[in-house]
Write a structure and sequence with these properties.
With 185 residues, the protein is mainly beta. The protein has a single domain, classed as Galactose-binding domain-like (Jelly Rolls, Sandwich), CATH 2.60.120.260. Helix content is 5%, strand content 42%. It has 2 helices and 11 strands. The strands form 2 sheets. Strands 1, 3, 4, 6, 9 and 11 form a 6-stranded antiparallel sheet that branches. It has a 5-stranded antiparallel sheet with strand order 2-5-10-7-8. A hairpin with a 6-residue loop joins strand 7 (91-99) and strand 8. It is globular, with a radius of gyration of 19 Å. The termini are far apart. The mean pLDDT is 87.
Length: 185
């Protein structure tokens, strides 16, 4: 299942601008469309915190799943697409699980390019607290999930996509021994 950014719980600082300017960060990051819409920053240590759609929110773009349809959550990771606008040097971005906390920060180094965006996906995290043998992910963790994106350095970064990929085991469908119409005659 893929969870996309939503306006709920999204904190965007003025150091992260959006293109087009009239949009919000979540609108710019919900599809991987390159220079059509993106968030941009060149200010060191500036951050934005993104909330994500509830896992049971099924839309054309958000592939949610009801809680009862999930047996166990196997892993959670972020998916991203960005690029450095510098001619020679990469742009750096630190991505961290704000809620739930505990997983280590991942540093992304987006290569310089005049127009092409680079896909960088996070490490699949088996535990919500980042500890080996720690706390398994729960549906409640997904409902409250927030990611913190912190610009590292002053080379301009354009971030076009940020989503959460959740892998899970489907709940078993129980065998029903109900009598079907017409079976007892």
């Amino acid at each position: 299942m893929i969870l996309l950014p939503t306006i709920t719980d999204t904190i965007q600082t003025p150091y992260w601008a959006t293109f087009p300017l009239a949009t919000n960060a979540h609108d710019c990051l919900d599809d991987d469309n390159g220079d059509t819409s993106y968030c941009v920053s060149s200010s060191n240590a500036r951050y934005m915190i993104l909330g994500f759609a509830n896992p049971d929110d099924v839309t054309i773009a958000n592939s949610g799943v009801a809680e009862g349809d999930i047996d166990t959550i196997t892993s959670v990771r972020f998916l991203s697409s960005g690029r450095s606008t510098d001619r020679r040097n990469a742009s750096l971005l630190d991505i961290d699980y704000e809620t739930p906390s505990g997983n280590p920060t991942e540093s992304c180094s987006y290569d310089p390019h005049a127009s092409s965006y680079e896909t960088i996906n996070g490490t699949a995290r088996q535990y919500s607290d980042g500890l080996l043998g720690g706390t398994n992910w729960t549906y409640s963790d997904l409902e409250n999930l927030e990611m913190r994106c912190t610009k590292d350095g002053t080379r301009q970064l354009r971030l076009s996509y940020l989503a959460i990929e959740v892998t899970y085991t489907e709940a078993a469908v129980s065998a029903d021994n109900a009598t079907f119409f017409g079976a007892n005659f």
